[in-house]
Specification:
It contains seven helices and 19 strands. The chain is α/β, with parallel strands linked by helices. It folds into two domains: about 90 residues, Immunoglobulins (Immunoglobulin-like); about 240 residues, Alpha/Beta hydrolase fold, catalytic domain (Rossmann fold, 3-Layer(aba) Sandwich), CATH 3.40.50.1820. The strands form four sheets. It has an eight-stranded mixed β-sheet with strand order 10-11-13-12-14-15-18-19, sandwiched between helices. Strands 2, 3, 6, 7 and 8 form a five-stranded antiparallel β-sheet that branches. Helix 1 runs parallel beside helix 7. The longest helix is centred in the middle third of the chain and has 21 residues. The chain is globular, with a radius of gyration of 21 Å.
Amino acid sequence: MRKIFHGLLLTMCGFSLGLSGQPAGVTFELSASTLSDTAEVYVTGNRAIFGPWNPGKVALEKKGNHYWAKTVPLARGSLEYKFTLGSWEKEAARPNGQPLSNFRADVQSDTVLRHRIGYWTAGTAPPEGQITGTVNYHRGTEYPGIAERDVIVWLPPGYEEDHRRRYPVLYMHDGQNVFDPATSSFGVDWQVDETCTRLIEAQAIEPLIVVGIYNSPDRALDYSPGPKGDAYMAYLVKQLKPFIDRMYRTRPEREHTFTGGASMGGLIAFMLAWEYPEVFSGALCMSPAFRYKTFDLVAPVSAYRGAKKPVRIYLDNGGVGLENQLQPGVTDMYRTLNSLGYTPGQDLLWVYAPGAEHFESAWAARMPVALQWLLNP
């Protein structure tokens, strides 16, 4: 495996969209008897004020006697958060040393969130490069209107042996989460490398190239309608895809070009296929944020009156936590696409996993079905 060491880019696939109304004062209180009173303790989460998910941006204030606290203004709505000692190498943990799951709260008014933490992860960096197969990195790609970002390209088994063969391409968003637990949010990746390798060896899918596009601190804007979303889609269509087609032995036609992602990455995957059907023939949309609070992509799709777009759409979602909030949007988008002529099982598929959370491991579990359906029209 070819690999290059690179700094961690840790951005949770969870998201927060702009919410209306006055912000609430949320006070985080932490007792940690195992820490020195001089320790630097941080709170992070899925809101912009935290990075989002920057482990060393918002420090709690030292109050003495192993106690820290801080009040921050947050818009009302769903909140996920964690405590760290400044990096993801040292975060709040269970007695067995495993990181705690995200804490969750529904912020509707001034709130005090109290926690007692007795354990922290060991402080050793996760092993780098736990990737099955060969990957190449393209660093700091740039395009007007969006922040620079890295790109990782996974090559299928046999790519280096048969120099005449050309391959379909799947472009995936939140690229740091796609292959490598060392760069993925909280050390859990989507295992696309292992899944593709297994399916290719079983001849369940055709060998393909997978391109993972890292996100940026502007993730929420990059992956939603608006100027940055338009710029991100233009970057992929006008710059990145032509570059990949020049650098690798691709099959550049739309019939062999796909896009995919989860959460807001699932939203932008749908938008790319919908806005650029001449470029993409299918979209893999896991737990897509079609409608959330005042945000709604279902309405403009429902209002579409043109010819049916020649794309295949895979949808899925779980049934726990944030997944329940996204369920109405997924349901309505499925019904809308059906009403526009998309046929279940042929060019439209919805998979429901009632026990699944909005998390990387859940998307990894559903990836085999998603890939086989998307890549086998």
